[in-house]
Amino acid sequence: MQQMLLERCKDMLEVTSDDEWTAIKPLVQKVMEARMAGFAGMGRGMMMGGPGRGGSGGGPNSQGGPGGGRQGMFGQPTPEADALQKAIDAKASKAEIKAALDKFVTARQAKQNELQQAQDNLRKVLTARQEATATLNGLL
To answer: What's the average model confidence in pLDDT over 99-123?
Structure first.
């Protein structure tokens, strides 16, 4: 699947030279990886339709699988997302939930920063036309 996405990006950016693609491809991969890492561990409401979706019985999926709580669209749940979900499920104290939430937000921000850095590095090697195309198509 990743190879298909890379080929699509190559076509979208109108890369015709193998040398140019050799320079751009690893940077595109970094952006794709950072974007997928950013989806991992998102909360219930972001990508999966909110609580009560998924799972074999129609209720919340406590395993964090597709349709349920602690996993985003791609990837495994983060430890911070698991800890926050456990605090919520256990009806933990305000202080415990706040601490878990702070850790989750910090981890999510770090992933967003990684994505921004990957996008900035890619931007440096693209022409203005390629940058515009990549931006319109959600890569940047």
So the answer is: 95
